[in-house]
Specification:
Blueprint: H1 30-51, H2 56-81, E1 94-101, E2 108-114, E3 123-124, E4 127-128, E5 130-132
Antiparallel strand pairs: 1-2, 1-5, 3-4
Helix pairs in contact: 1-2
Bound molecules: zinc ion.
Zinc ion binds near residues 104, 105, 107, 124 and 125.
Length: about 140
């Protein structure tokens, strides 16, 4: 019996990592997007007024309110999707020698590098850890 089936699972391709960069400068200016929204609201409002018996005094405020709710929802989702800032350059890290103890469970950790000489304490058991003096240098 020949077992000539090669089962090679090459997983080199397709691992680019998080390559999505948030573009701060939007190519479409604010006023252009506002005009686009207003044109869209006017077009849908006109279509609804012409095709249904709903009065314009009901359709137009409802369309404006709907667009506002959509925009606020999009803004909130955009805030949630914003990735954290990139890690600092290795050259900007300072060597520190700080020991922290968890006031709840007593766990101790040593911090050896930080972005400044007085870094924020790490958290453990949902609490900020306490800075303890080094026992020996
Ligand atoms: Zn703890």
């Amino acid at each position: 019996m020949d077992q000539a089936t090669d089962e090679i699972h090459d997983e080199d391709a397709g691992h680019d990592g998080p390559g999505d960069r948030p573009s701060k400068a939007s190519p479409v200016p604010f006023w252009a997007r506002l005009v686009l929204w207003l044109v869209g609201i006017a077009a849908v409002s006109a279509a609804l007024i012409l095709t249904t018996s709903v009065p314009a005094g009901t359709v137009i405020p409802a369309m404006i309110l709907g667009a506002l709710i959509l925009r606020v929802g999009y803004f909130v989702l955009q805030q949630l999707a914003t990735p954290p800032p990139p890690p600092p350059d290795p050259g900007t890290l300072r060597k520190v020698r700080l020991t922290y103890r968890c006031s709840v469970c007593g766990t101790e950790v040593r911090m050896t590098a930080a972005t400044n000489e007085d870094p924020e304490p790490p958290r453990h058991c949902m609490e900020d850890m306490d800075l303890v003096a080094p026992l020996y240098e």
